[in-house]
TrEMBL record:
Occurrences of domain AMP-dependent synthetase/ligase (ranges): 78-404
Native species: Aureococcus anophagefferens
SUPFAM superfamilies listed in its UniProt record: Acetyl-CoA synthetase-like
Protein name per the record: acetate--CoA ligase
Key words, A-Z: ATP-binding, Ligase, Nucleotide-binding
Length: 586
């Protein structure tokens, strides 16, 4: 869902509640000076050297005060647990010793398939000095887990017997069954991989390097959230996604922060769970996705206002563009119109935020990710010609013209795919795969994916993965999956189906097909709409015209353009009628 741009006069702040006491004491002037040094050819090396020394080496004695590191909010309310840095150290050592005794050698790949429990972060850290690791989201099924183990050539899987989520038990060990002494790693050794969906249907193992990733995770955590020594930082994502990796585990750990790990879901046992947690743990920095914000908006303000949120100082948004309406509710209701909102833009591949306002520094516009982070040099490029769009008031596809420390180094086991996906499209620039516009003030607005990867509820899902799960069922002859605007998820999943002869549409069949997708990929990939049709719009060569499918699902039938080139134009009005009925628009 593309956010609507708000008109402003110059760079006057629309919302800036913290004022000058923010992430940078010198405000916008300091940001501009630091940013200029971070991208300048003559100064950027020295800039990053300074930051590396500041964030990754400590020259003072270790603090004797053992402050909390991780506040674990269990699935069941009232079962929270506090872990100090000493607890985390001991937990990490226990797992590291177990890895050593088991026979995990340097360079062996370890797949971490764990729920949102305290040991998960310890497991990640235990792998760090010995083995590259890949954290797999605990919602994935045995088949999806198997695919990721095979692709990364993992020799080991670190898992738990069971995980909890919204009162439900997930038997992780059963799913897995169905499917140290310090060795300093070199700066460019692979630290971990995370798998992200690709347009071909085969997940990509995005590989991050040790030193560059750690520096970038540490630095973005510090500046994007104006992190302070007494903060309680709550990123409520899952560690199986890059958000949890960077902002639950590594970023807070490198900054010596106290962090919250959340096992449950935002509506269990009621829609006030987040805000009850804020009150219980005195959370100061809260980081969640627009999907969750929009879902909680639907329950009204009462579930928010009955809980004490006076500890909150910074609110963060991640995973997809946040629409201005949700931004205002987050700012005005959750934050009582006094907390800075950090609308962060980044990807699994970038390692950390590449565009974000800095609290108390950057004048903000609801729905805009504002300005680039240090070292990031964005370009807007014409999608067809590849020409760079200079100046303000332009749109196109978003690229980055130079590397930054957190950038991924390769696709595990397939560097050609890495080059083809990210660097060959608009040489020599990095291609994000997202559309973007730069407004009259030079602020950036992300307009959504331009490839065949869906972004629903912050999860990236390849259309080919969904289609493969559907056509594996005997009832489906052909499937075409597209994204469409969704009020809660941002982007919903719509699947058009040509049924195999002998099968007829029925509520039972639709339910069965949704179950097939859930079983093949995971519950988060369940289609919102399954629409059996008499025929799909195809060219004479047999190519499905997905542009038409997207327009119809988005209720933009009046913008279809010329359909006379289709092999059978008569399928279009039948398609429109079927979709209108499914969406309740007939």
């Amino acid at each position: 869902m593309a956010p609507k741009e708000e008109a402003t006069t110059g760079l006057k702040p629309l919302y800036d509640p913290i004022g000058s006491h923010g992430a940078l004491p010198g405000g916008m002037k300091q940001y501009e000076e630091m940013y200029a040094r971070s991208v300048g050819e003559a100064t950027k090396d020295a800039f990053w050297a300074e930051q590396a020394n500041a964030f990754l080496e400590w020259m003072r004695p270790f603090d004797t005060a053992d402050k909390p590191h991780r506040l674990w909010e269990a699935d069941e309310p009232g079962q929270a647990k506090t872990l100090t840095y000493l607890d985390v150290f001991h937990g990490t050592c226990r797992i590291a010793n177990a890895l050593k005794v088991t026979g995990v050698a340097k360079g062996d790949f370890v797949t971490v398939y764990m729920p949102m429990m305290p040991d998960t972060g310890d497991g990640d850290a235990a792998c760090t000095p010995r083995a590259p690791h890949s954290v797999v989201f605990a919602g994935f099924t045995a088949g999806s887990l198997r695919d990721r183990i095979v692709d990364s050539a993992s020799k080991w899987v670190l898992t738990a017997d069971v995980g909890k989520r919204g009162s439900k038990s997930i038997k992780l060990k059963a799913i897995t069954d169905a499917a140290p002494s310090r060795m300093p790693m070199d700066a460019e050794d692979t630290l971990f991989t995370l798998y992200t969906s690709g347009s071909t249907g085969k997940p990509k193992g995005v590989a991050h390097a040790t030193a560059g990733y750690l520096l970038y995770a540490a630095m973005t955590t510090k500046y994007s959230f104006d992190l302070r020594d007494d903060d309680v930082f709550a990123c409520v994502a899952d560690v199986g996604w890059i958000t949890g990796h960077s902002y639950i585990v590594y970023g807070p750990l490198c900054n010596g922060a106290t962090t919250v790990m959340f096992e449950s879901i935002p509506t269990y046992p009621d829609p006030g769970r987040y805000w009850d947690m804020v009150a219980a743990h005195k959370i100061t920095v809260f980081y969640t996705a627009p999907t969750a914000i929009r879902a909680l908006m639907a329950y009204g303000d009462a579930h928010v206002k009955k809980h004490d949120r006076s500890s909150l100082r910074i609110l963060g948004s991640v995973g997809e563009p946040i629409n201005p309406e949700a931004w205002r509710w987050y700012f005005e209701v959750v934050g009582d119109s006094r907390c800075s909102v950090a609308d962060t833009y980044w990807q699994t591949e970038t390692g950390g935020h590449i565009m974000t306002p800095l609290p108390g520094v950057t004048p903000v516009k609801p729905g805009s990710c504002c300005l680039p982070f240090f070292g990031v040099a964005p370009l807007i490029v014409d999608a067809q010609s590849g020409a760079v769009q200079e100046g303000n008031g332009v749109d196109g596809v978003l690229c980055v013209s130079a590397p930054w420390p957190g950038a991924c180094r390769t696709v595990w086991g397939d560097h050609e795919r890495y080059m083809a996906t990210y660097l060959d499209c608009y040489k020599p620039n990095y291609f994000t795969g997202d559309g973007c516009k730069r407004d009259a003030d030079g602020y950036y607005w992300i307009t959504g994916r331009v490839d065949d990867v869906l972004n629903t509820s912050g999860h990236r899902i390849g259309t080919a993965e969904v289609e493969s799960a559907l056509v594996a069922h005997a009832a489906v002859a052909q499937a075409a999956t597209i994204g469409y605007p969704h009020d809660i998820k941002g982007q919903g999943i719509c699947c058009y189906l040509e049924l195999t002869k002998g099968f007829e549409e029925s509520p039972e069949l639709i339910k069965e097909l949704k179950g097939a997708v859930r079983a093949a990929i995971g519950p988060f990939a369940t289609p919102d709409l399954l629409i059996p049709v008499a025929g799909l719009p195809k060219t004479r060569s047999g190519k499905i015209m997905r542009r038409i499918l997207r327009k119809v699902a988005a209720a933009e039938e009046d913008q279809l353009g010329d359909v006379t080139t289709l092999a059978d134009p008569s399928v279009v009005p039948l398609l429109i009628a079927k979709v209108k009925k499914a969406q309740g628009r007939d």
